Amino acid sequence: MSEIVVLGSLNADLVVSVERAPLGGETIAGSGFAVRSGGKGANQAFAAAKLGGSVAMLGRVGDDDYGRILSQGLAEVGVDTRMVRVLNGISTGVAVITVEASGENRIVVVPGSNGAYSMAELERDADSFAEAKVALFQLETPMETVVGGLKLARESRCITVLDPAPAQRLSRDVLSLVDYVTPNLGELALLSGYELGDESSEAEIVEAARVLLELGAGKVLAKLGGRGAVLVEPRRVERDYAVQVETVDSTGAGDCFNGSFAAAISKGMPELEAMQFACSAASVSVTRAGAQSGVPSLEEVLAFMGR
Ligand code: RIB
Q1: Is 59 in the pocket of ligand 1 (CB under 6 A)?
Q2: Is the pLDDT of residue 307 over 80?
Q3: For residue 183, is the peptide bond before it cis, meaning its omega torsion is within 30 degrees of 0?
Q4: N or C: which end of the chain has fewer CB within 10 A?
C-alpha cells in the first residue's frame, strides 16, 4: 500500500514553443514542438515519487499510445499504476500548450478519459485510500469524483491536499473536506472573490486566503510563483520566499510544488520545512522544459537548498 494517493488526470501535453502567444485571428510561427507527459494529477504523482514518496496514481486513460506512454512514465519513476485503468471507446486526455520565450504558458485541456472517471469507476479504486497518509486532488476529473475521493480519504484519516486547478468556485461542502488548499494567485482570486494580481500586497493575499478558511478549508497554502508561498491558518501566517531563477517553462511548477510537499510530509518532515522544500523543487523545475521532465531529483533540490 502506498503512503501517497493521487486522484487525478493524465494528459499528453502537445507543447508549442513561441516567442509570444498569437492574438485572436493571428497566425504566427512556432519555434519548436514536443509531446510530453502531463496532466495535473500525473505530474503531482511523478514529482512525489521522484522526490522519495511511495505513490499510487488513480486515473483513467484511453486504449491508445498516449495512455500507454503516460502510464509507463509513471511506473518508471516508481508510481503504482495499477489504478490507472484503461477505458475503451474514449481517448486519453490531451493538453495543447503554448510556452512563450518568457516561460509563461497557456493551456487548453481536452479531458477525454479523465472526464469519464466517474463515481462508479472510483468505487473500483476505493481501497487505495485505506493505508495512505496523504491524498492529493486537483480539478481535472469530474467534481463528484473529487468529492467522493476526498470523503474516502477523510474516512481513512489521510491528510487531504486540493489543488483548485483549473480554477473554479468551490462550495463549503468541498472545502470543508480539505486540509490544505493550494491555489495560485489567479485561483485564490476566483475562490475568494478578491481582485488579486502580481502587484497585490501580502496582506491582501492573506485576507483573501482567510475567506477560504471561513469557507471550511483547514489551511491555505498559496503558491505565488516567483514570490514563493504563503501558509495561512486561522491564527498563523508563514511565508517562504522563492529564490529568483531563470524561467524556461513554468508548466507544471504548481504540480511539482504539490507533489514534493506531499513527499515531504509523508516522510514526517515538519510542515514549514516541507513548504520550503516544495518551493525549492518548484523553483528548479521552472528552469527546465516540461511538466514531468522538469521535476528535479532529491539531490538537486537539497543542493538548491544549500544542504
Ligand atoms: O499543470 C500543468 C498541466 O496542466 C499540464 O501538464 C497539462 O496537462 C494540464 O493538465
Answers
A1: no
A2: no
A3: no
A4: C
